[in-house]
Amino acid sequence: xxxxxxxxxxxxxxxxxxxxxxxxxxxxxxxxxxxxxxxxxxxxxxxxxxxxxxxxxxxxxxxxxxxxx
Length: 69
Hints:
By secondary structure, the chain is mainly alpha-helical. It contains five helices and no strands. Helix content is about 60%, strand content about 0%.
């Protein structure tokens, strides 16, 4: 599943994939794969991304499941 919330938050901060990648210590390709839903990041990477984007894990990585409401 694509992580559009992460992409939007990064764009709101006027930050490129390369810039975010450098700040969290991964490659630009890794950030691109996380946003595309092709890579399952470690908890540490998730926390580092959230720290850089000024948001919480819930904001970016929690998938809401409305099927059990």
